[in-house]
Design brief:
The complex is a heterodimer of chains A (about 300) and B (about 270). With about 300 residues, chain A is an alpha/beta fold. Chain A has helices at about 45-50, 75-80, 95-100, 110-120, 135-145, 165-175, 190-195, 215-220, 255-265, 280-285, 295-300, and strands at about 5-15, 20-30, 35-40, 60-65, 80-85, 150-155, 185-190, 200-205, 210-215, 225-230, 240-245, 250-255, 270-275. Chain B has one domain (about 1-260). In chain B, helix 2 packs parallel to helix 7, helix 7 (about 155-185) packs across helix 8 (about 190-210) and helix 7 packs parallel to helix 9 (about 240-260). The chains are: A alpha/beta (about 300), B mainly alpha (about 270). At the A-B interface, helix 2 and helix 3 of A face helix 1 and helix 4 of B.
Amino acid sequence: MTDLAVQTNALSKHYRSLHAVDNLNMQVPHGSIYGFLGRNGAGKTTTLRILAGLAKPTSGVAAVLGLDPQKDTVAILNRTGFVIEKTLIPWMTGDQLLRFNRGFFPNWSRERAGRYAEVLEVPMRQRFHRLSMGNKTKLCLLLALAQDPELLILDEPTAGLDPVVTDQLLRVLVEDFAGTGRTLLLSSHHLSEVERVADWIGIIDSGSLKLEARLDDIRGSFRRIRTVGQNLPTAGETILTCRISGDTAEYVVRSQAEAFAAELTAQGATILDIETMNLQETFLAVAGKESNHVPVEVLA
Amino acid sequence: MYLWKSWHESRWIFGIALACILLAFVAVMQAAPPHITITHTVSNGNGVLQTHTEHNALMPMLSIPKSAGLWFYPQLLPLALMAWLLGGRGIGHNLGEGSGNFILTRPRQRARFILADWTIGIGELLVIILLINLLYATQVYRFRGDLGLATNTQELLAYTVVLCAASLAVSGLIYGITYCFTIITQHGRGAIFAGGCLVAYPILGAIVHDYSHTIHLPSLIPHLAHQAGTPLLGLAPWQPATLIRAALVLACLFLSQAILQRSDFA
């Protein structure tokens, strides 16, 4: 547990027949920037709410910084910044929200808060409910960053933001978290943005984690193999996904693509091609309906 | 800081109540006690003799207990309204408007947020109640001669305390029930449900009583007027009624805390 900032073990959250989170096993290493990807309704927000102690799991366990979110909620909240819903107290101005928030955190630094306000260009004298969507999000992030958390958990931080604001936010996050030993867990379905900042990826679909890997491993060793043959294998140690239609098959393998292709060839199959994969292709293979070739951004 | 937020969100209610009381103070302090002329007609052997005497219009309030009873009921309506408005402004309201998640992810026990809301809410009610009943005490003391009351400041003070305690118990109960409903519904509209229940309860009581005269649903309001003339010291009849309501207020507080602690915000 100590090497992991967040860990879940068979975590489930059910609402009658709906399994929002289903047997989720997730491991977020300390010091990583972890992109938690999934389509809408995949279970990302519910998972993050469980980590914040806002929702109770139906079964399974979760640990945040080695602590139980249900029992040690206050201790976790002291060390972790959560931005789950981007709604703050509507009548407060940015300055009032800073004053309100700093009373809760002993490590609060006015200087740091002021710097973030300047960098993110948040109008601090306007009431929260009068701010634009982008400024609301930036203010939420500012409050979370200024508490100097060991772990920052953000739910869809760039949702509804224009490209300029998105760029500002991502720059700040990278500057503050990359290589600092602090951990950032951000959920999103905007793959290109996650790809810019994350070093670890977790893909959730229908409540369970389908893939957890380093981004470099996805880029470096994940391959798509198209093949034609009979009695092709449907499962294997390195096979991530497999789609068979008649005599043709399409595999996504985690590693050792050449060895797997050689194995198929030895079984009499013909290899049509072996392709490297980017994050979007991997996401579509794992969580999307890849045969439709619908971009993930549109699906979201 | 949460105390400041609670104060900021409820101060307009407190401000309006305070302004009303100050206006009432000014109006009452400037007014002379109303007088009426009573004509006495006496028949004697020589005919009818009529005499006209000036009396204070407040003559019926010949005793402090009776005047306290008459003062108690009218203050309950504005206090109930204030308590209901304040009860709907807590963290349940924040949950409804979407800022509840932000507050509940601040590193504090949820019970402490509720305690802060109650400190401000009950505190504001207490100040208003003290001022209302200070107005009563001032008026009775001022017109004690006109009212034909013996100058018994100790009794007046005791009855003022009784009025404050009974009013706080009733308005606190309304505050507590309203607050509890907003926590149960996780929304400010819980106050509307609470208001509906508070209005429906006495109607239900009347229907039940009409159906069977042996069944009496307990009233929200202690029958202070019935206690007129009873001793204030020792175990006076008003004390258990007020204490039961005070216990119910505390029960609402603890229930709200327990519900919020166990709530699932999914």
